[in-house]
Amino acid sequence: MHDSTPEDNNHSQPKNPLHGVTLEVLLTELHAQYGWERLAKKVDINCFKQDPSIKSCLKFLRKTPWAREKVEAIYIQLKQVKS
Prior knowledge:
By secondary structure, the protein is mostly helical. It contains 5 helices and no strands.
């Protein structure tokens, strides 16, 4: 007999590398690892190229799903390489 219910399983995502990671944490780690210039080469978006900041990038990425998906994919790759 196990203690978890089907409802518990819907909220648990142990295999999802983005589970529990906020966009701000993700972006901060990517910036620390690559810097704005290298991030701009990986994802061609102006928030990485013109006067970049965490705040401006967060605002853009929250409104732009395709760009957020690309940035999240870079983060996942980074985590896979480190593990």
